[in-house]
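Sequence, please.
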């Protein structure tokens, strides 16, 4: 507020009276208004306009208290991270406790006969799917599950050797799979649960120069007709598979 002369002050660019003794009545269109009332109204309007001039759209009025927002804890995002692969389907694992797996040549099994360490041990199935066990001799395990082999061993041991034999059969190592055709390395490879045909090809050195890279031909070991079937590279290898990578013409 600045003083511009006797009895007159300037408030925010507007002249007002500072000397109340100089207030007088003025005539305006036949009506008398106290000058003090006019001054008060002007100062009130100036204050409102100044407050409005400082308001920015989208913000709260200065008279309102600002709300304090607490920082939100960041939760792990379910979105895929760039450069990482998202697995939409779980890889099925063929375990030693799988009840549907059929035994065949090359499988290594462990047989545990309760309280009979001389009869227990590890055995590998030969080319005919058989193995030799103490006391009872040669056992044909081909195309049998672990549970079916347990029943067979109980029948062979009872009652001549054991009154009430209790037997548990577990697969330790599955038979290998075989790769032929347009592949970097041919031959037998140890089976790994959950591997795809593409992964098996990569382990063997990758495709050959003239290989078709969209599918493979497979002969299943449990197929009595031994016919080739056409499978995609994302299908899963089975123990004993004979996998042929075809050759392209051009």
């Amino acid at each position: 507020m600045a003083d511009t002369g006797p009895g007159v002050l300037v408030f925010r660019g507007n002249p007002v009276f500072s000397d109340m003794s100089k207030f007088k009545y003025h005539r305006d269109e036949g009506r008398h208004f106290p000058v003090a009332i006019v001054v008060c109204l002007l100062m009130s309007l100036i204050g409102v306009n100044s407050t409005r001039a400082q308001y920015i759209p989208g913000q709260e009025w200065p008279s309102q208290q600002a709300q304090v927002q607490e920082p939100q804890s960041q939760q792990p995002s379910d979105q895929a991270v760039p450069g990482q692969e998202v697995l939409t389907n779980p890889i099925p694992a063929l375990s030693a406790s799988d009840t549907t797996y059929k035994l065949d040549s090359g499988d290594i099994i462990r047989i545990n006969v309760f309280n009979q360490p001389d009869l227990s041990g590890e055995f590998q199935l030969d080319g005919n799917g058989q193995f030799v066990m103490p006391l009872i001799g040669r056992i044909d395990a081909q195309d049998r599950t672990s549970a079916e082999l347990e029943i067979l061993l109980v029948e062979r041991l009872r009652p001549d050797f054991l009154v009430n034999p209790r037997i548990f059969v577990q697969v330790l190592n599955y038979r290998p799979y075989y790769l032929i055709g347009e592949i970097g390395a041919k031959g037998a490879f140890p089976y790994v649960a959950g591997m795809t045909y593409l992964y098996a090809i990569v382990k063997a050195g990758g495709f050959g120069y003239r290989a078709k890279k969209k599918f493979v031909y497979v002969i299943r070991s449990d197929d009595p007709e031994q016919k080739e079937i056409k499978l995609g590279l994302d299908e899963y290898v089975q123990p004993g598979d004979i996998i042929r990578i075809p050759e392209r013409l051009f």
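The first strand starts at residue 2 and ends at 5.
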